[in-house]
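can u do me a favor
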């Protein structure tokens, strides 16, 4: 209980607090904007709920679903809610922050009832600004990607050898690829080498054959002489 007021109790729900609530309303300072009536039938409350929840969370520093539902219920109780009664009811929750909260809330509701579709014009402008910033950020990101791709292509072109010229990258690649691989011999040299080996083999074969023939021819003579 704060100042003779039970937290969460509407001043119109219990006659026991009628006099206390009237006294509190007489002692409370209200913003001049709360004197202007709001017709909730012209207000799109669903579009305002996200703003309302964010405002409550900012004031309290935490998420408070109970207080959020309490404010929504008071706004939905009547097509013409009493702004001063709502502020008195919120004093137990928000204490000295209640006047600031009600001034902001009532300004939003007044703007909404005068706007097409019951959505405050400021909400529409903020949303359009948010979408514009998001689109600009996406365009900047796309531009950075294109610039990066362009630099990569330019670097690739610089490393590519020009006509009749080789870069050091090519020299390194040739050297690394040639390591561990046998040197290739031209086909003409290979044929000449094979022909030379065949010629030597035939010559050795003929020499060996003559040697065997001579040894056979000399063998009978030695036996006869013995």
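np, heres the sequence
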């Amino acid at each position: 209980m704060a100042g003779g007021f039970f937290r969460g109790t509407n001043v119109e729900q219990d006659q026991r607090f009628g006099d206390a609530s009237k006294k509190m309303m007489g002692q409370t300072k209200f913003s001049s904007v709360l004197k202007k009536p709001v017709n909730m039938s012209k207000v799109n409350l669903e579009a305002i709920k996200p703003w309302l929840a964010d405002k409550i969370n900012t004031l309290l520093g935490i998420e408070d679903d109970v207080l959020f539902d309490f404010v929504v219920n008071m706004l939905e109780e009547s097509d013409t809610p009493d702004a001063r009664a709502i502020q008195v009811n919120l004093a137990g929750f928000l204490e000295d922050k209640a006047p600031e909260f009600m001034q902001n809330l009532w300004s939003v509701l007044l703007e909404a009832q005068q706007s097409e579709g019951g959505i405050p014009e400021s909400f529409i402008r903020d949303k359009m600004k948010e979408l514009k910033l998001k689109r600009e950020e996406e365009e900047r990101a796309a531009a950075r990607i294109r610039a990066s791709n362009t630099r990569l292509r330019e670097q690739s072109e610089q490393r590519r050898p020009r006509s009749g010229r080789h870069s050091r990258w090519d020299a390194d690649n040739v050297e690394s690829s040639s390591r561990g691989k046998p040197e290739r011999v031209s086909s003409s040299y290979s044929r000449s080498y094979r022909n030379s080996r065949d010629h030597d083999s035939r010559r050795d074969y003929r020499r060996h054959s003559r040697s065997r023939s001579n040894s056979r021819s000399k063998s009978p003579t030695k036996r006869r002489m013995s």
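The chain is about 70% helix and 0% strand. hope that helps!!
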